[in-house]
Specification:
A: alpha+beta, five-stranded mixed beta sheet, four-stranded antiparallel beta sheet, 4 helices, B: about 230 residues, alpha+beta, OB fold (Dihydrolipoamide Acetyltransferase, E2P), Ribosomal Protein S8, Chain: A, domain 1, six-stranded antiparallel beta sheet, 5 helices
C-alpha cells in the first residue's frame, strides 16, 4: 500500500535548516521538515533564576515549548497549556544527555522552541532545531541530537509521519531522538498498539531518518561560519 | 599511530570525530571516547604538538586570571560589590581590593565608592575551583568609567576588534575621536559625542558580524570614511 503523499516507507519529507536566526539569542536555529517549522533560541549559560533552583555541580536546563495560535488549521488558544508543559519536559529530557552540564556549574541554560507551523512531528522538529541552537551557542555537547518520528500506518512501518497519516485509524506514532555519533537513543515514545516485529522495523527506519537529519544539521552549522567558501583565519 | 581525521583550521561540530589513537590528546572543546578524540564544541580545530583544541566561535565569556575586563555594578553589599561581567555568574569585588584606604564597614556606606550601574575597568584576580570569580582594582589604569555607552559583543571576537597590536581599535579611535576601552569579556566602553558614539558602535558591530572575512580592515576603513564625511 502506498503512502498518502506517495513517499517511500523510509523517505522523509523535504528538510531545511538554518542557524543564527535570532539576533538577541546566544544561539538559534530553524528547522523545517515538510510543513512543520520549528524555531529554537538558546540563552545562556547565564545566572540561574530563581536562585534556589541553581545547582552547584551543573547547569540547570529549562525548556519552553510553544505552539503559535496560527500554527494549526483551527486557532489554538495562545499561551502555555498542559501539552506544551509536557513537551517542554520531553524535549529537555531528550537534549540533556547530550549536553556536558558539568562545564558550567551554578548556571542556567534556557531553551525556547516555537512552532510556527505544525503538521505532525513538532516535538522532533523542536529537538532537531534546539540541538543546533545549543551547538551554535557554543555550549559543550557530547553529540548533536537528531529527531524524527516513525510509526505503523496501515500495517506498514514508515518514517516521518505526516498529519494525514497520523489521523489514519490504528496508527502508532513513535518519536525518536538519537545521538548519531554515540549511537544512543535519548527519546522514545510510542502512542498506540503495534507488534514487536513492526516496532523493530519502525525503529530501524527512525534511526535511518535521524542520520539524514544529522547531515542537514551539520551542513547548516557549517554554512553559518563558512559564508561563500572563504576560510576562517586563525585568530591567535 | 593515530590519525587526524579533520584538517587543521576546519570547522568541527559537536560529536565529530577529530582523531583516532591514544597519541592524540584532548584539550579545550574536545574529549576522549575510547580510542578516538571527539569535538564537544562548534569551532575551528587547532592541533599543536598532538594536542587537539577547538577554538570556539561563539559562547559566553569564561573568566581567566589576569583578564582585563569591563563590568557593571549590579549590587552593593555589606563588604563588596556584585559585578555583571557577562559571564555565567556574577563576580565579586571585595572592598579590600577596591579601596586603598581602610574602610570602617560598620560605620560607612560603601556605595560612595561604586554605585549600582557604575561601569568599571577591572581585573580578574582569581577564579576558584567552584567558579567563584573575584575581581580586583589594584593595578594601573583600573578605574571607574564616567558616562559613555557599552557595546556588547561575542567575547571570541575581541581579538579581531583589537586587531594586530591594537590596529583596528586604533583606526576607529582615529576616525571617530572617541575614547574606547575594550574588555576581554566582550564589553566595550565608548565615550565621545553622541553621534560619534553611534558610528563607533556600528563599526564594532560590523567587525563582529564580518570577523571571519579576509580584508576586514579595508572594509571597516571604507565604512568609517563614508560615515565621517
Amino acid at each position: 500500500m502506498k503512502r498518502p503523499d506517495g513517499r517511500k516507507p523510509d523517505e522523509l519529507r523535504p528538510m531545511e535548516a538554518k542557524v543564527g536566526v535570532i539576533e538577541n539569542a546566544t544561539g538559534s536555529a530553524m528547522f523545517r521538515i515538510g510543513n512543520t517549522i520549528a524555531i529554537a533560541g538558546v540563552y545562556g549559560p547565564r545566572e540561574m533564576h530563581p536562585r534556589r533552583l541553581e545547582d552547584p555541580e551543573k547547569s540547570v536546563i529549562k525548556c519552553y515549548y510553544d505552539m503559535y495560535s496560527f500554527s494549526v488549521p483551527e486557532r489554538k488558544r495562545p499561551g502555555p497549556d498542559r501539552r506544551s508543559t509536557e513537551l517542554g519536559m520531553v524535549i529537555r529530557n531528550a537534549l540533556e544527555p547530550a549536553i556536558l552540564v558539568k562545564e558550567f556549574p551554578k548556571s542556567g541554560i534556557d531553551i525556547f522552541v516555537s512552532i510556527i507551523q505544525a503538521d505532525a512531528g513538532t516535538r522532533c522538529a523542536a529537538i532537531s532545531a534546539a540541538s543546533m541552537a545549543l551547538a551554535d551557542a557554543g555550549i559543550p555537547m557530547k553529540d548533536l541530537v537528531c529527531a524524527v518520528a516513525c510509526g505503523n500506518v496501515n500495517d506498514m512501518a514508515v518514517a516521518d509521519l505526516s498529519k494525514e497519516e497520523e489521523d489514519v485509524e490504528l496508527t502508532t506514532d513513535i518519536p525518536i531522538a538519537y545521538m548519531p555519533r554515540q549511537k544512543k537513543i535519548t527519546l522514545l515514545q510510542a502512542d498506540g498498539d503495534l507488534s514487536a516485529k513492526r516496532f523493530h522495523e519502525a525503529l530501524k527506519l527512525g534511526i535511518q531518518g535521524c542520520e539524514q537529519v544529522y547531515e542537514i544539521q551539520k551542513k547548516a552549522l557549517r554554512e553559518k561560519y563558512q559564508i561563500s567558501g572563504e576560510m576562517i583565519e586563525d585568530k591567535d | 599511530m593515530g590519525n587526524l581525521l579533520v584538517n587543521e583550521k576546519q570547522i568541527v561540530i559537536p560529536g565529530e570525530e577529530i582523531a583516532t589513537g591514544m597519541d592524540f590528546l584532548p584539550s579545550f572543546g574536545t574529549y576522549r571516547d575510547g580510542e578516538s578524540i571527539i569535538a564537544s564544541r562548534l569551532g575551528i580545530l587547532s592541533v599543536r604538538n598532538r594536542v587537539t583544541k577547538v577554538i570556539a566561535l561563539n559562547g559566553v565569556y569564561m573568566p581567566q586570571m589576569d583578564d582585563l575586563i569591563i563590568g557593571v555594578v549590579k549590587d552593593v553589599g555589606f563588604s563588596g560589590w556584585t559585578i555583571d561581567i557577562g559571564s555565567v555568574t556574577y563576580a565579586n569585588l571585595p572592598v579590600g581590593e577596591a579601596v586603598r584606604d581602610k574602610v570602617e564597614l560598620l560605620k560607612s556606606d560603601i556605595s560612595k565608592f561604586y554605585e549600582i550601574g557604575d561601569v568599571i575597568v577591572t581585573k580578574v584576580m582569581n577564579v576558584t575551583k567552584s567558579r567563584i570569580v573575584q575581581l580586583s582594582m589594584r593595578d594601573h589604569g583600573l578605574r571607574k568609567l564616567q558616562g559613555g555607552i557599552i557595546v556588547k559583543v561575542v567575547p571570541q571576537k575581541i581579538p579581531r576588534i583589537i586587531g594586530k597590536q591594537g590596529s583596528m581599535v586604533g583606526m576607529i579611535k582615529e576616525y571617530t575621536k572617541c575614547e574606547i576601552s575594550v574588555g576581554q569579556n566582550g564589553f566595550i566602553w565608548v565615550y565621545g559625542p553622541a553621534d560619534k558614539m553611534q558610528i563607533t558602535k556600528r563599526a564594532i558591530k560590523l567587525i563582529e558580524e564580518k570577523s571571519h572575512i579576509s580584508g576586514l580592515t579595508d572594509k571597516v576603513k571604507e565604512f568609517l570614511e563614508s560615515e565621517s564625511k
